[in-house]
Write a structure and sequence with these properties.
Blueprint lengths: L2 H7 L5 H6 L1 H20 L6 H33 L3 H22 L8 H29 L2 E2 L2 H19 L15 H23 L11 H4 L10 H32 L6 H23 L3 H30 L9 H17 L4 E2 L1 H19 L2
Antiparallel strand pairs: 1-2
C-alpha cells in the first residue's frame, strides 16, 4: 500500500463528517442540561405547555439519537451484507430498548407492567404497523412481492413459542399469584429465550444463511471493498450515539410518570412510547426496502426485530428484576392477550406463501388500529 492509499484508509475528521454528525452535539448537550439542571427543568411539569415542550424535546432527541444509531448500523450492514447487516441493526435497536426499559423501570416507584407493556407494544407496532405499511406500500408499487419462505418460517417458528411462553403462559400458571412466574419458571424462560435465540443465530449465520437472502444477495455482499475503511468509524459512532439514550430515556420517564399519575392517562403509555422510539428507525428501513422491491430485507428487519426483542429483552429484564427485587408482570390482560394471539396467527397466514400483496398489508394495519383502540378502550 503506498502513502496515498494509507492516508485514504485512515479515518479522518473532515468538515463533511462534522456536518453529518451535528446531532451528536444536540444529544450530548441535552444530556448535560438534564443531568445538571434536571430538577429545575422538571419543576414546572404542572404547566401543560412546559410539560408538552419537555416531552417533545426529550422524545425528539432520543428518537434522533436512535435514528443515527440505525444510520451507522446501516453503514456497517453495507459492508457485512445480509444477514449480518440486519443482525447489527436488530442488536443495536434491542440494546436501545434494553437501556430504555432498564432506565425507566429503575426510575422512581416500581412499574411491574412496564416490561410486558413494552414487549407487547413492540410486537404490535412491528407486526401490525410496520409490517402493514411495508406490505401495503410495496403492494401498491409492485403489485406482488416475493421473499424467502424458508426464512420467514424460521423466524415465526421461534417467535411464536417465545411470545406465547413470555406473554401468555404467566396468566395460567398457579405457582405464584397474578401474571407472574416462580423463580424456577423464570429461570426456564430465561434459558429458553436465550437458547432459542442463539440457536436461531447459528442457523441464520451458518449453514442455512441462504434462507434469509433472496437470489443474488449473497454474491452482492462481497462487492463492497471500497466501503470497508469506514467500518471502524461507523462502529464507533454507533456506540457514541447510543450512550446518551439510557440517560435521556430515564429523563423522559418523568413527564410520562406525571401524565400517568396526575392526568390518569393509560399506564401502558410508557411502554408505547418506548416501542415507538425503538421501532421507528427500523420501520423507516423496512418501508424503504419494500418500496424498492427488496421485501426480503424488510422481512428480515421486522421479523428479526420481534425475535430479538423477545429473545434478548426478556432474559435481561428478568435478571434485572431478580437483582433489584422489583416484581415484573409478564402475562397480558384478556383483550391484549387475544390480540397478540390473533396477530401471530395472521402473521403465519401472511408469510405462508412466499408472496405478499396489498390485502395482507391492510389486514396488519387493521390489527394495529385495534391495538391503538385497546390502549384507551380496553
Amino acid at each position: 500500500m503506498d502513502q496515498t492509499e494509507a492516508v485514504e484508509a485512515k479515518p479522518q475528521i473532515t468538515p463533511g463528517v462534522v456536518r453529518a454528525e451535528w446531532f451528536l452535539g444536540v444529544s450530548y448537550l441535552t444530556t448535560a442540561l438534564f443531568l445538571l439542571f434536571g430538577d429545575l427543568l422538571f419543576a414546572g411539569l404542572s404547566n401543560p405547555l412546559w410539560l408538552t415542550a419537555l416531552f417533545i424535546w426529550l422524545f425528539a432527541v432520543v428518537l434522533g439519537s436512535c435514528l443515527n444509531v440505525v444510520r451507522h448500523a446501516d453503514g456497517i450492514a453495507d459492508v457485512l451484507g445480509e444477514p449480518y447487516g440486519t443482525l447489527v441493526l436488530t442488536f443495536s435497536v434491542t440494546t436501545i430498548e434494553v437501556l430504555s426499559i432498564s432506565a425507566v423501570m429503575l426510575h422512581g416507584a416500581n412499574n411491574p407492567t412496564l416490561v410486558r407493556d413494552t414487549l407487547f407494544s413492540v410486537v404490535m407496532v412491528i407486526l401490525g404497523g410496520m409490517a402493514g405499511i411495508s406490505l401495503l406500500i410495496g403492494g401498491f408499487r409492485h403489485k406482488e412481492q416475493h421473499y424467502n419462505l424458508q426464512g420467514a418460517n424460521a423466524y415465526l417458528g421461534v417467535i411464536i413459542p417465545l411470545a406465547v411462553l413470555s406473554l401468555t403462559l404467566p396468566n395460567f400458571t398457579v405457582t405464584t399469584t397474578g401474571p407472574t412466574l416462580s423463580q424456577a419458571q423464570q429461570l426456564f424462560l430465561t434459558l429458553m429465550c436465550a437458547g432459542l435465540y442463539v440457536a436461531f443465530l447459528a442457523v441464520q449465520t451458518g449453514r442455512h444463511r441462504s434462507y434469509f437472502t433472496s437470489a443474488g444477495e449473497i454474491a452482492e455482499t462481497h462487492e463492497t471493498p471500497a466501503h470497508r475503511p469506514s467500518l471502524p468509524r461507523h462502529a464507533l459512532l454507533l456506540v457514541v450515539y447510543m450512550l446518551p439514550v439510557g440517560v435521556l430515556a430515564e429523563e423522559l420517564a418523568k413527564p410520562i410518570d406525571y401524565l400517568i399519575e396526575t392526568l390518569h392517562v393509560p399506564a401502558a403509555l410508557g411502554g408505547v412510547v418506548i416501542a415507538i422510539i425503538v421501532a421507528t428507525p427500523e420501520a423507516i428501513g423496512a418501508v424503504r426496502a419494500a418500496m424498492i422491491n427488496k421485501l426480503q430485507q424488510a422481512v428480515n428487519i421486522f421479523l428479526g426485530s420481534v425475535l430479538s426483542t423477545i429473545g434478548l429483552t426478556v432474559p435481561v429484564m428478568l435478571l434485572i428484576s431478580h437483582l433489584t427485587g422489583r416484581v415484573v408482570f409478564l402475562g397480558l390482560s384478556g383483550a391484549s392477550n387475544v390480540l397478540l394471539l390473533l396477530t401471530l396467527a395472521v402473521s403465519v397466514v401472511t408469510f405462508a406463501s412466499g408472496r405478499t400483496n396489498v390485502l395482507q398489508g391492510a389486514v396488519h394495519i387493521v390489527l394495529f388500529g385495534a391495538f391503538v383502540l385497546l390502549i384507551f378502550q380496553a
